[in-house]
Design brief:
Layout: H1 3-13, H2 17-24, H3 30-42, H4 46-59, H5 65-81, H6 89-101, H7 105-121, H8 125-132, H9 142-158, H10 162-179, H11 182-194, E1 200-204, E2 207-211, H12 213-220, E3 225-228, E4 233-235, E5 240-242, H13 247-259, E6 264-265, H14 266-274, H15 281-298, E7 302-306, E8 310-315, E9 321-325, H16 333-339, H17 347-354, H18 358-370, E10 375-377, E11 384-386
Helix pairs in contact: 1-2, 1-3, 2-3, 3-4, 3-5, 4-5, 5-6, 5-7, 6-7, 7-8, 7-9, 8-9, 9-10, 10-11, 13-14, 13-15, 17-18
């Protein structure tokens, strides 16, 4: 490796993409192409960066397996940033194995971090924790250690382990300070801001108040019966009942939870659960059937008692009932929550992250675009969508439920 390549690599490691380009911008050898690709990715030109990295991977000889594996890892990072979640993960796994076999521990660890970040993004937290457990960050340089702690904090926040998340972010800030890379420091600050902005609303006895993430965790651990509209579950400190696939039942229990300890008139339940403008005999018959199903689902936690004018929720163990809702609710809130991370998403990537069909996501995007709340650019397979962040609210922790099925 010549001196210019070495200097460019050191500039990139220090967070200086312009310094790297100054040294290799006019060169077309494989190593220079790879470094130019990484520099262009740092500057935000992801299309050009991807093209340069693919050209570098082709130019490296068959014996330069480590260099080609590094190009694959860099391309995987571009795919993650551009939300190309359909990018072949097997190629990243093969590159990681190659880097491990040739004792390139740092780049192998970076490849693992990319796989973890992808798993977190699409909600596979168990898989992410398993991969994270395979990494020993003791010998990482400051920049990679900060990235490791950011991943750790991201998983902890989605598990609602707020103390562990704050500890990881403190370690990330310490490592970012020693790395002296402004972009990394800014990323740590953005992640820390998530813990200090409202993550949910508590609705109880007709009153509402905003909650931080740790407040929401304290509420879930308090022993109250919680109707969680972020994840479509009903739970107390010991029992967890998911109604994510039963939207009518969840709507009923949410309306009853918001009114607790009062009852709710039958006509109001019909209007909210069945979206009927006026209740008739068929609606009342269906309501009796759905309430019977709800009683069966909630038997470990609560009962639903009939009153003279409607129904009321009766907790078995808990002394109070509260509803935990997203800070901002919208018909297409799940789509907005992902788009508000500031990145550009394809409809296929959103469908994968949400666990919904691509056509359902496309309809939601078309509706939001008609309202001017999202925008698109590109055509065909290159079509991407983005939206400005919602000010003052946590977006990545809205824990959106699945979209209504087709």
């Amino acid at each position: 490796m010549d001196s210019l390549i070495t200097a460019a690599a050191r500039a990139l490691a220090a967070g200086d993409p312009f310094g790297a380009l100054n040294r290799v911008a006019l060169r077309n050898d494989p190593a220079a192409l790879a470094l130019r690709g990484i520099a262009m990715a740092r500057l935000g030109d992801l299309v050009r960066a991807k093209s340069l990295l693919q050209a570098a991977a082709r130019a490296f000889g068959p014996r330069e397996v480590v260099a080609r594996a590094r190009c694959v890892v860099a391309e995987a990072e571009i795919a993650l940033v551009s939300r190309d979640l359909a990018w072949p993960t097997k190629a990243l796994d093969a590159a990681r194995v190659t880097l491990d076999a040739h004792r390139d521990w740092l780049n192998a660890a970076h490849a693992r971090h990319l796989a973890i970040r992808r798993s977190v993004l699409i909600g596979r937290l168990d898989e992410a924790e398993r991969l994270l457990g395979e990494i020993d960050p003791a010998r990482f340089p400051p920049a990679l250690r900060a990235a490791h702690e950011l991943v750790t904090a991201g998983i902890a926040m989605r598990r609602l382990h707020t103390q562990a998340a704050r500890a990881a972010l403190a370690r990330a800030a310490h490592a970012a300070h020693y790395a002296a890379i402004p972009a990394l420091t800014a990323e740590v600050e953005r992640a820390t801001l998530v813990l200090n902005t409202p993550a949910a609303r508590m609705v109880a006895s007709g009153e509402e108040r905003l909650l931080l993430l740790e407040d929401a965790k304290a509420l879930l651990d308090s022993g109250a019966l919680v109707v969680d509209a972020c994840r479509h579950v009903v739970c107390d400190a010991r029992t967890f009942v998911s109604l994510a696939t039963r939207p009518v039942l969840f709507t009923l229990v949410r309306v009853l939870g918001e009114a607790w300890p009062r009852d709710v008139p039958r006509d109001e339940l019909i209007k909210r659960a069945f979206r009927a403008k006026a209740a008739d005999a068929s609606h009342r018959a269906r309501l009796r059937v759905e309430v019977g199903r709800l009683r069966t689902e909630l038997r470990p936690l609560a009962g639903v008692s009939a009153t003279k004018r409607g129904f009321a929720l009766v907790a078995r163990r808990a002394r109070r009932v509260v509803v935990l809702a997203p800070p901002v609710e919208d018909q297409h809130g799940a789509v907005l929550a992902f788009l508000s991370d500031g990145e550009s998403w394809s409809s296929s990537a959103l469908a994968l992250a949400l666990g919904a069909s691509q056509r359902t996501v496309q309809r939601a995007l078309d509706a939001l675009a008609a309202e001017g709340r999202v925008q698109s650019f590109g055509r065909g397979r290159a079509l991407r969508w983005n939206s400005p962040s919602m000010p003052g609210f946590t977006t990545t922790l809205l824990l959106p439920g699945p979209l209504p099925s087709d």
